[in-house]
Amino acid sequence: MKKFRFWSTIMLSVILLPMMVACGSDDKEDIVTSPDSFIIGTWHSFKGEVFSNGESTIVMIDKSGAASGAYMEFKFEKGNKVTGWWWAQDSYNLSHWTEGSGTYIIKSNVVTITDVNGDTVDLIYNSNDETLMLRSTPNVNGEYVTTNIYFKK
Question: Does the pLDDT at position 106 exceed 60?
Fold first, then answer.
């Protein structure tokens, strides 16, 4: 009798196991997205933060406002192609829109853009507020000034 109970338990388990596995939830389809899909789209600068002499200054940036000279756009496309637009001054000290293109790669939260001349720039992605940050530290009149420019879609 013990053998019969043992074997009937095993047989019942063998019969019920496929039914339990097959009864999983099929209500939602699995959505597979590329881990790099966050970057696809057009990003524009909206805020600048300048650190000089131990102090921080925040500047809001828009395309036509007082800080429009700091306005930039990057359009990231599938296939690792990027196009950018920004204000630049020519040899006559006149400001105009400049366009550049290149490629990008993503490693962790760093997006590295390489232009057609081989020059690179790194943008850091913050997933908490979904922004990109470009950090620059130029030498201004003998002082290194750190500038963070923030981008959003």
Answer: yes
| Contact between residue 86 and residue 70 where contact means Cβ atoms under 8 Å apart | no
- What is the token pair recorded at 95? 């400001």
Amino acid at 19: M
d(CA 67, CA 81): 28
Query: What's the whole-model pTM score?
Result: 0.68
Distance between CA atoms of residues 81 and 129, nearest Å: 24
Task: Identify the CA nearest to 121 among candidates 135, 137, 107, 106.
Answer: 135
* Rounded CA separation 62/68 (Å): 6
Token pair for 130: 């979904």
C-alpha to C-alpha distance for 16 and 22, rounded to whole angstroms? 10
The pLDDT tens digits of the residues spanning 55-70 come to 899 989 888 776 777 7
